[in-house]
Design a protein that fits this description.
The chain folds into two domains: 132 residues, 2-Layer Sandwich (60s Ribosomal Protein L30, Chain: A), CATH 3.30.1330; 160 residues, Phosphoribosyl-aminoimidazole Synthetase, Chain A, domain 2 (Alpha-Beta Complex). The longest helix has 19 residues. By secondary structure, it is α+β, with helices and mostly antiparallel strands. Helix 2 runs parallel beside helix 3 and helix 4 crosses helix 5. It is built from ten helices and ten strands. Strand 2, helix 3 and strand 3 form a beta-alpha-beta unit. Strands 6-8-5-9-7-10 form a six-stranded mixed sheet, sandwiched between helices. It has a four-stranded mixed sheet with strand order 1-4-2-3. Bound molecules: adenosine-5'-diphosphate and magnesium ion. The site of adenosine-5'-diphosphate has 13 residues, from helix 1, strand 2 and strand 3.
């Protein structure tokens, strides 16, 4: 199977929403009038972002999910994406599985594949997504203000829990491992929540490198600090805190990575609106702390006293 057979068999569908899709030198997109185009790229490298044990179908899902998560964090509506693939071989079983996972998530979000690049080499997947957001309404990292509540969506830490089980650092019961592994391999991008938070959240970010590290970007961009009540974050581990000791559970929740939940801020007066956005999008939202004028990030333990435990952030070159 040659490059162009491969593309036409697995990655070419007629464009439905875009003026021009796969097949020419460029695709053409048509964001609605009065909207900005939101653009983001994420690359997945074997051994770095995923384990070779992952099923191709889950990998196809995840490659698109991590990109849609960036659109969610901006409050943008997905339009289209491109797929740049480096493949060690034209393995048809692998391609069919990968494409199935990718198309299922793409269709669920009405996001169409409009182009890409295909080459032979080490397994590497780079997707670029394009979304639209009404001009001036994108959720940014820079909008958090002292007094705002700090919120997170969904559950946190289960992907890290699965990773530590793979590494052999933690032993998990089989059922807890399967559930945590599903969270690691098939994250849910919070696209409906992101759009529902427009006009309500003052800032947002998606959590890819761990809550503390990613929140740090919001604090820096907004010129503020924050306090997190860790007693409110500990229960966010979906596997339950019974599967490991509390220190590990906190590490997974606060500094886990690969969560693809949203961390966002909103004024306390808008708590009913935030909760309504959560309900409307079918996404749990939890208030975990507050934004303060004093720079830095402070963690409170169960008794309300400063937490002694320290956490390392994730940095590819750190
Ligand atoms: P070019 O030489 O102009 O870069 P290519 O010959 O690489 O174009 O690709 C031919 C067409 O197939 C282009 O429209 C390109 O966007 C598309 N394409 C290539 N790889 C993929 C892929 N993995 N998924 C979707 N479309 C792809
Ligand atoms: Mg090319």
């Amino acid at each position: 199977m040659g490059e162009f057979d491969l593309i036409s068999r697995y990655f070419h569908r007629p464009a439905q929403r875009s003026p021009l899709g796969v097949g020419d030198d460029c695709a053409l997109l048509a964001p609605a009038a009065g909207h900005h185009l939101a653009v983001s790229s994420d690359m997945l490298v074997e051994g770095r972002h995923f384990l070779s044990t992952v099923a191709p179908e889950r990998l196809g899902h995840k490659a698109l999910a991590v990109n849609l998560s960036d659109l969610a964090a901006c409050g943008a509506k997905p339009l289209a994406f491109t797929l740049a693939l480096s493949l060690p071989a034209a393995d048809e079983a692998w391609l069919a599985g990968f494409a199935r996972g990718m198309w299922a998530l793409a269709d669920a979000h009405g996001c169409e594949l409009v182009g890409g690049d295909t080459t032979n080499g080490p397994l590497n997947i780079c997707i670029t997504v394009f979304g639209e957001v009404p001009a001036g309404q994108a959720l940014l990292r820079s909008g958090a203000r002292p007094g705002d509540d700090l919120w997170v969506s969904g559950t946190l830490g289960d992907a890290r829990l699965a990773l530590e089980a793979f590494r052999g650092t933690l032993q998990l019961p089989a059922q807890a491992f399967a559930a945590a592994r599903l969270r690691m391999e098939t994250p849910t991008p919070r696209v409906p929540l992101g759009q529902a938070l427009r006009g309500c959240a003052t800032s947002a970010i998606d959590i890819s490198d761990g809550l503390l590290g990613d929140l740090g970007h919001v604090l820096a961009a907004s010129g503020v600090g924050a306090t997190i009540d860790t007693a409110r974050t500990l229960p966010l581990l979906a596997a339950g805190t019974g599967v490991c000791d509390d220190a590990w559970a906190l590490t997974c929740v606060l500094a886990g990575g690969d969560d693809y939940e949203l961390a966002f801020t909103a004024p306390p007066a808008l708590r009913p609106e935030v909760e309504a956005a959560g309900r409307a999008s079918g996404t749990a939202v939890t208030r975990i702390g507050r934004i303060e004028a004093e720079p830095g990030l402070r963690l409170l333990g169960a008794n309300g006293a400063p937490l002694a435990q320290r956490f390392a952030g994730f940095d590819h070159f750190g």
